């Protein structure tokens, strides 16, 4: 696939049959009317062996944990509460033991228990070469409280939750040394972020419950890519200040160049990037402080072309969508 | 996977968080409470290249059509109306052109338009070797009208919709002669049933709208397998009469042995097998006759071990779950 974004554009349905549909293709998850209090949010994500994970970097339980986390992160980016998930798994006829496949489900279950999500269905099939796992997650969003990517307005604060760069740094360590290396404590922290990322469900809910206008996107492909998605969906220019982006404190042993790569283009941090009305910013900061979730102002939105500018050493340059290409360097 | 059924049993969640869940793992689709009038039904199915389809037997559009049909058939077996679908597709880096992937979506769209189903989301990723397509379908079922597999009772009529055996016969022709052979009209009919199966949405709805108690299952893995699922879910014995099972009229050129294999074990007919109260049988037949959907009595339910007996030439034998193993003979 040369350009996934253009390809998805070409698939956009030309008509819509159901008036209950609020948001189809083009955000983190789809949204449709449910009852009087809630809307339903649904998303699906696939992890492919040797594309999204390698067996030398992830235990089966990590693969399961992450396959569900990716989806819960999409629900977080819509401000939703996850309720259910379905798992479709294609397992190669050789190379995977039944007990290892069971461990994949155990990994999902560990995360599901934390967020009280029920496994309600799925499909188990054979494949010839690679394990492919697809998770569908279904949740609810309070009616009318929609944190769409298109909500950004000129003057908004751009923010990000927690720290960036940990997952990509963890992956680089795993690819260099494998899983059984005697890692230092800080390195293990980075690896943990890669193998068992934490979807920011509570952060999305906080914003929904405050009732503020906000645009939100989860950082699965790197902040460069996700900031561009916000800019494009909202038709605005986003300006980010590299100095303000919170780099994970355990990145200290990497070079500045590596840290920049991890922070800007290293995906799978599953933090949330968003924009909110400047006048709500103090209130948002207080609420996040009270909930003990780190949130940082990293830039602003202005009228202009849907592009992202990065200020670095006081010089702006265009931050393109390059994003994160899984294992590209290693192939 | 040695035994998918046993494996799925081992995955059954030990607890359930959401009281809104009506039916989780163990039927054609999951069901949960929605608003006052409807429940939501959701299912997911995966097709894997060289396992569920080969490029020499299916055009890209057929692959898409079938990937959605498989899911709509699951919704049919719950008596539901499909509303939405999401598509996750893993496309090999080599061997598939973008225009061919687009044709897969066109194939889905053809069926989606017929049943007014909206594509609302998905994921597009790379794979190394095989194309894997996973469709999640979401629909609604009138509140309380549930055609679960476990609903069978002693004395019930066992019925099947339309004809059986066409899809497997079509596949055997395609595997022998390929897609460009000058097939006779009857052969083309069988091939069409394999490449573009028709989910029996209307049949499921008819039963729901009549408000009769019925158990229902769609025939994705062959009637032998699906009848056993009904027997197990309901804890009853099912007796089928081979002579009464409607064989597809275009099967005439095959041997009796082949026809038996296609009809009993040849999956992917996507007809519905079900059981219903004997006292409603005349009413059901009339309703189906009026709707121009063929429905045939093929056996009965009785108390006893959860097994299926097949009467053939007046002798009963146990019909095991052998089902349909895709391409097993050819590998």
TrEMBL record, chains A, B:
Residues 153-305 form the PurM-like C-terminal domain. Mg(2+) 3 binds at residues 28, 74, 218. Mg(2+) 2 binds at residues 45, 74. The keyword Transferase applies. Residues 26-141 form the PurM-like N-terminal domain. It catalyses: thiamine phosphate + ATP = thiamine diphosphate + ADP. InterPro entries: PurM-like_C_dom, PurM-like_C_sf, PurM-like_N, PurM-like_N_sf, ThiL-like. Substrate binds at residues 52, 268, 324. Keywords: ATP-binding, Kinase, Magnesium, Metal-binding, Nucleotide-binding, Thiamine biosynthesis, Transferase. It is an enzyme of class 2 (transferase). Coiled coil: none annotated. Pathway: Cofactor biosynthesis; thiamine diphosphate biosynthesis; thiamine diphosphate from thiamine phosphate: step 1/1. GO terms for biological process: thiamine biosynthetic process; thiamine diphosphate biosynthetic process. Catalyzes the ATP-dependent phosphorylation of thiamine-monophosphate (TMP) to form thiamine-pyrophosphate (TPP), the active form of vitamin B1. This is Thiamine-monophosphate kinase. It comes from Pueribacillus theae. The lineage of its organism: Bacteria, Bacillati, Bacillota, Bacilli, Bacillales.
């Amino acid at each position: 696939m040369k350009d996934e974004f253009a390809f998805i554009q070409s698939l956009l349905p030309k008509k819509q049959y159901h008036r209950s549909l609020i948001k189809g293709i083009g955000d983190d998850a789809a949204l449709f009317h449910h009852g009087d209090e809630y809307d339903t949010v649904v998303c699906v994500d696939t992890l492919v062996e040797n594309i999204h994970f390698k067996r030398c970097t992830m235990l089966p339980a990590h693969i399961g944990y992450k396959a569900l986390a990716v989806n819960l992160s999409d629900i977080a980016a819509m401000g939703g509460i996850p309720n259910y998930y379905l798992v479709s798994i294609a397992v190669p006829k050789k190379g995977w033991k039944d007990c290892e496949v069971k461990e994949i489900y155990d990994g999902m279950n560990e995360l599901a228990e934390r967020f009280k999500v029920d496994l309600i269905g799925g499909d188990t099939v054979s494949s010839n070469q690679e394990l492919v796992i697809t998770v569908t997650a279904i949740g609810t969003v309070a009616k009318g409280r929609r944190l769409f990517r298109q909500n950004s307005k000129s003057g908004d604060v751009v923010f990000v939750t927690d720290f960036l760069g940990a997952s990509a740094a963890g992956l680089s360590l795993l690819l260099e040394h494998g899983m059984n290396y005697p890692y230092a404590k800080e390195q293990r922290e980075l690896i943990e972020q890669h193998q068992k990322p934490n979807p920011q469900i509570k952060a999305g809910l906080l914003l929904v419950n405050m009732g503020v206008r906000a645009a939100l996107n989860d950082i699965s492909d790197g902040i460069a890519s996700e900031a561009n998605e916000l800019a494009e969906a909202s038709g605005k220019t986003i300006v980010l200040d590299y100095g303000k982006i919170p780099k994970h404190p355990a990145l200290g042993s990497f070079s500045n160049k590596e840290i920049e790569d991890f922070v800007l283009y290293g995906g799978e941090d599953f933090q949330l990037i968003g924009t909110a009305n400047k006048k709500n910013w103090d209130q948002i900061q207080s609420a996040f402080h009270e909930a003990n979730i780190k949130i940082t102002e990293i830039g602003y939105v202005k009228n202009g072309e849907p592009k992202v500018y990065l200020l670095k050493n006081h010089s702006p340059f265009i931050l393109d969508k390059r994003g994160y290409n899984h294992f590209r360097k290693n192939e």
